[in-house]
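Box S1 | Example of a co-folding query
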Amino acid sequence: MERYESAKKIYAEYGVDTEKAISLLNDVTVSVHCWQGDDVIGFDSCEALSGGIQTTGNYPGRARTPEELMADIDMAFSLIPGKKKLNLHASYAITGGENVDRDAIRPDHFGKWVEFAKERGIGLDFNPTFFSHPMVKDNLTLSSPDDKVRKFWIEHGKRCIEISQYFAEETGIPCVMNIWIPDGYKDVPADRLSPRLRFKESLDEILSVPYDKSKVFITLESKVFGIGLESYTVGSAEFCLSYVNRAGIVPLMDNGHYHPTELVSDKISALLAFNDKVGLHVTRGVRWDSDHVVLLDDETKEIMKEIVRNDALDRVFIATDYFDASINRISAWVTGVRNVRKALLFALLEPSAQMKKLQDEADFTSLMAVGEEVKTLPLGDVWEEYLERNSMKNSYISDIKEYEKKELVKRQ
Ligand code: RNT
Ligand code: ZN
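Box S1 (continued) | Returned holo structure for zinc ion
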């Protein structure tokens, strides 16, 4: 409290209102991915994780059932402040033992998740699952030359729109449905165009399903490469952006999905200039799209600054997307999502009007000096105050260890 009062004064000297920052912060929704809890395995198939993504590590305590996953989400959410949504994949259908393939999933297979969300007053986001399934043929789904394969996945996409609308209607909170396909080739293809034309046609078909555009926001996520898909991905950045703009859906950028020197923070404003909404998957790639836990690093802060500075908090769908099986999975959730929010707070505490003015006056000397000055202002004191108002503490590891001892060890 004392430290907060002093921090408040320090920020006020820069014209920054910490009270306003705290209240804005608490209102930002972060969509938390369910798949950190079980290494992206889901409940609907015995297939290993595929699609060129990979979880490494075998820390004990992976959630193996819907009940375990829900309990772990509750535990993680109890340590994550602010508004949250739960982001589900179609592979997390709960069918009660019934064998339901992905082209046949229905809203009632997600009834338990809706119940879970309603009880906690949170919204749900959704993702069709175009991987870890025997109908992924030669690493292709919606772009496959095999009609049967394409038809199967188109049907899956359509089912998912129906489920997304059901989520929105039941929870009263709009649902973001993100499409990402792993399709690509390990080695140099002979034909780069045909798979993209097939993908385009498949997307058109999926989107022909009528849905309420005020309730369901469909995003399309691009990617530059995957494991075993190093030479070519069908859903490249240019393909996805062009498609999104023609179809009137929403672009989604995952910051692991670009060449290592490209920065998503620099791309956000470009997309905001042309799109009403923009989706983000916040992750941390280490040398490649490794999906490490999000830290409070420069790029995470820069991404959040771009959202706040451009007054786009209500235009950007912020979701997390990482999976680490080498550490306590609940801690991974908490650390990553807290860092997203901490970075948001850093951005909200930036004297951005003053800095923009310096830029327009071409006073780059002052701009650099101020930019460096604010880096060491007492962010931590405001963060702790924010946590306290949410009945949380900065240090949470003992709670996690206790849960590990009580619950996770039983799962050997
Ligand atoms: C893969 C994409 C995609 C997945 C999730 C599980 O590279 O980032 O978003 O991580 O759908
Ligand atoms: Zn992603």
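DSSP finds 14 helices and ten strands in the chain. The chain has one domain: 29-348.
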